[in-house]
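Subject: Sanity check before I submit

Could someone independently write out the structure tokens for this chain? I want to compare against mine line by line before I put it in a report. The sequence has 266 residues.
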Amino acid sequence: MSTPAPSSPRPLAATAPRGGGGLHRFANPGRFLRLTDRLLPWLWALAVAVTGAGAAWALFFSPPDWQQGETVRIMYVHVPMAWLAMGGYAGLAVASLMSLIWRHPLADVAARELSPVGAMVTALCLATGSLWGRPMWGTWWAWDARMTSVLVLFFLWVGHAALVRAFDEEERGARAGAILALIGAINLPVIKWSVDWFNTLHQSASVTRISAPGMHVDMLYPLLVCALGFTLLFAALVLARVRAAVMEKRLRQMQLAQARRQEGAA
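---
Independent answer below. Compare away.
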């Protein structure tokens, strides 16, 4: 008696589905794998080079702050991690929207692989903020609006990562995770404007004031280079995870097809 074939995973489309604009030309897994095969080595090399240059500039050539002294160097990790935590979640919301509306076949995979990386950078944001806050504010943690809203963001990242893996059917998990991600996006403007809406320990925006940034260029430029380097690392890591997930799914589909052929021949 032959053994039953394993349940089929949600297939990756071989052709681009309708709607959703030009992004669907990357829906073909073979095209995506060919593109990332050429792109990833260059992206990793550029990310390491820019991050190394930014770290050296921030640690050895940027001046200490006149009030915070050498402690200000935590900023060169903390601020980029905060930007990536929010920007990455915005990307998660976009991928979830594409999954729910246009059924983009790579959107579910991208969202699934993005959430662990997003949780990691948000955890680094919270950890470095705690390390920075202890000498500046005299406490490791204060339940002000920004810190609390970023903590909520961390729980949203972790919740999404757990939810999409909690179902036997990948499609159900992807749909539940997409709904959670879109609801959680409400937290992003709360984080951004919490320092203006509430009385918090955090200072108001100093980098994003284009007309008159509240930071000297000797600190601003290395911060921006560090942010670019960490962003490139983030993108390379997510792309590598998505590529590995696509290859794994294709391998499972090939194994399933082989099992069905063997069952049919038995």
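---
OP: Matches mine. For the report I'm noting this point. The chain has one domain: 28-204+217-265.
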